[in-house]
Structure formats: structure tokens, C-alpha cells
Amino acid sequence: MAAVDYKDIFHKAKVGIALNDPERGVIGKVNERYAELMGYSPAELEEMEIKKISADGPKFDQEAAMEKIRLALDGESQQFDWLFERADGSQFWGEVVLERTMIGEEDCLLAFVRDITERKQYEQALEQRNQRLNEFAGVVSHDLRNPLNAASGRLELAREECDSAHLDAVAQAHKRMGDIIEDVLSLAQAGKSVVEPEPVDLAICVQECWRSTDTDDASLNIADGTTVQADKTRLQQLLWNLIRNAIDHGGKEVTITVGSLDNGFYVEDDGPGIPDAARQRVFQSGYTTSSDGTGFGLRIVKQIADAHGWELGITTGNDGGARFEVTGVQCS
Prior knowledge:
The chain has nine helices and twelve strands. By secondary structure, the protein is an alpha+beta fold. It is elongated, with a radius of gyration of 29 Å.
């Protein structure tokens, strides 16, 4: 077996690498990619303190860098994000890994740097989007719920003073307004991007949703189970809306089946199904064929699927009903 040429690997690596000199607190020898990232020559970087290539602020100063190095020297590998500043003053985010290792007979501290600026910008954009959704939800909750609660209170007082069929119509209108507000809030939450999914047992999740739903005489069949990577709360919301949709449109005695696919899962019923011409429109906000529906349920399902990076499709079930397939899911 040919001997490993560490120098060749070092200089040709696509990731920035530095052989740090902890005793002097300088960057040390670097490869071409590291020099390219920083905008300095390898010779300039070799004697340069880490703070010279770092953004201003206590989070990225020499002391903060040396603390990471001390931990790595003690045998605790370090991985963290760092804001660098290039020779021309421009900045970029780097993912840094510090590893203490032996190269030949030499005890070395290696620093690996990878440019993650695009990822950071994406994360910041998601954070701003989620913040806007939170603000919107707050406005809807406060500015619409409060007047509705006041109106409902006045309605109860009116009932005590007179008996009129018109009051029942008002109560029904209040209920519909309340349902719309709840669905709009759910829609705002559903649109938030999923950052930290966790393993969720699909069968258990379905059963929990079933217990929290007014199922009338409907029946549930779990064909098989799987574990999916998801935000559990929003997965429950997705399943609850699909179950509720099946009951609302499939009849009180509808049978709902949930099962796994190679790359996801499905929810189907034995109701009348969804015509081909309507299958794209059902995911639009406000679309409904029911006089009691708000038209937001399936839109919420679509938003939750999109937030996970999943695909959502409609086909015909085994018994002619509607079958919703969620694919692109990480399953185990």
C-alpha cells in the first residue's frame, strides 16, 4: 500500500485547513483554500493572530478563539460557527472544526474552515419569516378575538332580554368567525419552516389525533406503522386536518386508513373521493364544498408539508375515496 502523502492532501483539500500554533496564538501554516477564503497569502497568515481574520465583537475576539483552542487541546473536538473578516474587509460565516491529532510523530491542532454564508443567510431569512408570521398571528388573535368575545358576551345578554330566532343566526355567525380565526392562526403557524425535526411514531401520532377528534361513527384502520422525521406538533395538525376532512366529506360512517409508503405515508378514505378537476383547487385558501367549512383545512395541510420539504398529492383510494400521499419524508 502506498504511503499517504499528507502534504499533498493538505494543499489540495477543498476545505480550508490551518495547522494552528496555540502557544503563540497565531494561525500557523495554511493550505491554499484557507488563504483563498481569507484573502491573504499563506505567508501573511502564518504569523497572524486569529483576531485579525475575525469580525469585531467579544464573540469573535482572540480570547474567544483561544478558549475554543484550549478545549480542543484538552481532547474535546470543537465545531462552531465563526464570523470571519477577509483582507478586503468583507465578512463571511465559516463552520470551524478543531481537532487535535497526530501527523506522523507530531502532535498537531488542525482547524478546518468551510464557508457557510449561504446557509446562514437562509437561516436568517427563515427566522425573519417566522417572526413576521408570529406578529401576524398576534394581530389576528388580539384584534379579532377580542371584539368577537365582546360580541358573544353581548349576545348572551340579549338572550336574557328576548327570545328571537335571529339570535341563533348571530350565534352561528359568531361560531363561524371563531372557526375562521382559529384556522387562520393555524395557517400562520403551519407556514413556519421546520428547523429541528424529531423521530415520530406515525401510528401513535394518528391514534392521538383520532382521540382528539369528534369521529361520530367513523372507523380508523392503521395498515402499518413507520417512524418519520417531523415536527410532532405540526404532524399532528396535518393528520388531524386530513382525518377531519375525510369525516366532513366522506360521511359519518367513513373508514379512514393510514399507512406507510417507501418515502412517506398516506391517509385515505372510502368516501366519494375528489374529482380530478378539483384536486389542485382543494389546497387553495378558502376553497370548500361544505356550507360549514372554512376552506382552510387542506391549505394548512399543504403548508405543513411544504414547511417540512415534503410533497403532497391526491389520488384515488382503494375503495374509490380520496387518498392523500405525503412523500419525500425521511422514514425509518
